[in-house]
Amino acid sequence: MVVVLIAAAALVVTSAPRANMQAANLVSTQIGQVKRTTLSAVVESSGSSEPQNALNLSFGGLGTVARINVKVGDHVKQGDVLAKLDTAALELQFQQDEQAVIVQQATYSQTLIPDPATVTSTQAALTSAQAAYAAALQQAGLSQQQVTVNCANTTQAKSALDRAQTAYDRLANDHQAKNYLNSDWGPFQSVVKALSDAQSAYNVAQASCDLAKGNINNGPVTAAQAQVAQATANLDSLLSPGEATIAAASAQLEQARLRLQQTHLALSDAEIVAPFDGIVTQVNGSVGESGTGVSIGVADISHYHVNVLVDETEIAKVRPGQETEITLDGLPGVTLTGKVTRIDPSGALVQGVINYNVQIDLEPSSAPLRLYMTTNVRIIQATHADVLAVPLSAIHSDPAGGQYVEVVDQTAPQISSHRVSVTPGITEGSQVEVAGDLKEGDQVSLTVAPRRTTNFFGGQ
Question: How high is the pLDDT of residue 324?
């Protein structure tokens, strides 16, 4: 009994200081509150406001600048001529090439379907050539008749010569007559003379025949025949053109068209034309200088987007279509909205970290947004409305791996606390969503009061 009384006295003596110490710790600790709110899980990054499209335009050809039609800040429409080179020589060349195409087109068309007037004139040329050929043949026929007449005398003279030669040969084979032939011919003088006269007559007739043949000229016949052949070929080619003729006419037409197209491109290259509606952001160059030094910047500001970098540890949380909130350093108090529209599949190493480019298209806004303003972007992964939340520092972990908060009760005569197990949800800033036996307005400790233990005799 003595021992029991001593232990009871010790318990009374030590419990009062311990309770007072715990109460003192709770009074000195920071207190948070359970709130009902809306939280969003976000990925944050920064970038700049960029136009839907932006280009730096220049001339495609060489020349001297004749006109610059815009200045910085001008609004332009698609197709507007912003600047132009001196194109007088090109315009003249273009007109010449146009006429060449017209001529080659007519030639090609007439190759396929000949002009009736051309057919008539070609047929007339063939008829004329045929008539000339007939006349040449007739003239050649008259000359041939003369040859026939002259050469007929040669035949007669040859016959007479043959007879005189026979008579002479007969005497030459007669022994008695041969003696006369070797002397003064005697009574056979007429035979010898007849052979001499026949030889002379034949020579005259042969010379006359050769002369008649030499006077024949076949040149007119040959020339007339060639003209007929050419006129026939012309008419055949006109009425039934061959594949080679058609191909040649087609190739000539195509060459003319290509020359015209080349000149047209050169004229296009001599102009700087707005590719879209937008605003002029820069003008470099002046009239009279070489076109190589001129450039004009144009930006499409009908829509803006922001490009931000997200590191590899968070990129898996980002998906196309996610809503975003954008604030701008240059427009305090303005919050814009947008959506993730593109995530680059390949990352880049930036300061030792792999980052992926994410494009966010901004929703239309009346805010005075300008090009390349600094933006702060919050990509919203998820939003939980009407949830209970506590300060992040109110969440504690126990040795078993669970998580809890210390709920402080200040309504009792003496301040006390008790643990409530919670399941954290999404975190936004310093607030974290919690699920557990809590209610709105509960107060929680932001630091854990130390738990003291005593031995039987009140020692620590």
Answer: 93
- For the chain, residues with pLDDT lower than 50 are 1-22, 24, 449, 451-460
* Helix ranges restricted to H, 76-218: 88-112, 116-173, 175-181, 189-214
Is there a contact between 394 and 35 (Cβ–Cβ < 8 Å)?
no
Q: Nearest-CA neighbor of 42 among 325, 388, 312?
A: 325
Q: What is the pLDDT of residue 358?
A: 96
Rounded Cα distance between 36 and 48, Å, is: 35
- As given in the structure block, the two tokens for residue 266 are 């050169």
Residues 450 and 19: their CA atoms lie apart, in Å, by: 12
* Cβ contacts of 382-385, under 8 Å, gap ≥ 24: 382/40, 382/41, 382/426, 383/38, 383/39, 383/40, 383/41, 384/38, 384/39, 384/40, 384/425, 384/426, 384/433, 385/38
> What is residue 344's three-state secondary structure?
coil
At position 374, the amino acid (one-letter code) is T
What is the structure's pLDDT at 144?
61
Over its C-alpha atoms, the chain yields an Rg (Å, rounded) of 61
- Residues 29 and 24: their CA atoms lie apart, in Å, by 9
| Phi/psi of residue 441, nearest 5 degrees | 100, -15
Q: Looking at residue 145, what is its pLDDT?
A: 62
Cα distances from 296 to residues 70, 72, 273, 281, in angstroms, run 9, 9, 10, 8
SS3 per-residue string spanning 393-416: HHCEECCCCCEEEEEEECCCCCCE
